[in-house]
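Appendix B, record 7
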Amino acid sequence: MKNFSLEGKVAVITGAGSGLGYATARRFHDAGAMVTMADINENTTAAAEEIGCFFVRTDVSKEADVENLMKTASEHYGPLDIVINNAGIICGEELLENADAATYESLFHVNVMGAVFGIKYGQKYMRDGGIILNTASNSANGDYAGYGPYIMSKISVVGITKVAAIELAPRNIRVNCICPNTIDTPMAYAEGCETELQVMGIQTPLGRMCKPEEAAALFHFLAADDCRYITGEDIYIDGGLKAGPANQMIEAILKSLQ
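Structure tokens (predicted):
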């Protein structure tokens, strides 16, 4: 559709080396955008070359890195139209009684400050009428025991999204976040959390994890000109999980109690 074309748009995507970020970079490039892929992993250079994108190595927890990313991308392609703050990390199960400050700080610096820095410097190098998109999580509902550090970080991303939407509205810059359930990416199989994350995916009414391409499609929808009146929103893409757990999961639990 013409109004969902990204032809000539300048986009920056963090965490673009794999998973959702990679799928989004490929989709946006195919839709006509000029994409700068950012990732802490130097191997992303090969992925960027394969797609036909520009790559800037970036540690989103470092303010200077993020400023350099936005400045370099704008110098390479021109003023930014789209910034997607997608880079993030996860942790294994950690009950509050065993809360480790280092774990909380690590997730805060990457997941929260990465988005804050992305907004701060993204808007600085962005033309009026642009859009900033953040990756939050359906766990921003706060209803998963044992994942306090991750939930804290993603609730914060939702909050900062809404603040930014209000602050940047005078420039007609929209700010939204997506809240996916478990995405079927390498991070979902990380040591220490693979079983729990896969179960979270299976318990959705649709009975599976979200595919990276499906979440990338939501980013594309929100970035399109036809969505210019949507801002300050946290939009769930969770296979129906927010509506309630899958019937098959409830049936299994009830059977175990008999």
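Remarks on this record: The CA atoms of residues 70 and 124 lie 8 Å apart. The longest helix spans residues 101-124.
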